[in-house]
Amino acid sequence: MANDSSDFARSMAIATSGLRAQAGRMRVISENIANADSTSQTSGGDPYRRKVPTFSSALDRTLDAQVVTLGKIKPDQSNFRVKYEPNNPAADATGNVKYPNVNSVVEMTDMRDAQRSYEANLNIISATRRMIQRTLDILKS
Amino acid sequence: MSINDLPVLSALRTKMQWHQERQRVLSENVSNSDTPKFRPRDLVEPKLDKSGAVTGSMGPLAMTVTSASHMTPSGAASSFDQNKNAGFETRPAGNAVNLEEEMMKAASNQMDYAAATSLYSKSLHLLKTAIGKG
Predict the structure, then answer these.
(1) Could you read off the pLDDT tens digit of each residue along chain A, which spans 141 residues?
(2) Which of B21, B2, B124, B4 is nearest to B82 (CA)?
(3) Å from B31 to nearest chain A CA?
């Protein structure tokens, strides 16, 4: 087991891994939102496919603690939206254009969720910092 | 007799260590608040006797090493009892972390730690007064 005195440092490192994972999730979400209307360049081709971030809990051996990591970013297998736009260059022979399977409402709720989790991790860091400060205050008295 | 052998100081030190370790456990819970199948954990509060030693709780059982070539298990080994009953609200993904509850726990942990540290420095101050340096 790691040295007891580094427990606060470990708390901070664990919370930092949470921050990193949520920031990565935010990046994927912003990619989805930015590409909400990206159609294919070729006629009848597939447009942008929504990406879903995954999280996994892993044991960090240097920290000796369970940290969170952003796992594989997987494609969402749901169906594309189809619109009838015969004049669109991306339209297939029947005049239908495939649009990405991105739902902006879902992305927005996901974004709020990521934001909340990020703030929770930040709170843990500031709480831990206050606790370290209290420990140092013993020396001052 | 060293200064740390005083019952008050040793009890407070154990309590501070417990808060430190609990902070780590809570931080694990919060950072894994979106990990599928993750179950939150918590620590059981230590009971201290008059001499400041921990009583009434059985520490985690250590793994027995039956051969010198065995490796000791790595992982979040804790010197305090774990409370496995934490978390009752499980989401469809199998994650049982309740962020609000964890934040409340972190806040109370921080406040209790602040109380323990001020008691510790007060006790030190008392000692200083006793030896005529206060």
Answers:
(1) 444 447 899 999 999 999 999 999 999 999 999 999 999 888 888 999 999 999 998 888 888 788 899 989 999 999 999 999 999 888 989 999 999 999 999 999 999 999 999 999 999 999 999 999 999 998 887
(2) B21
(3) 4
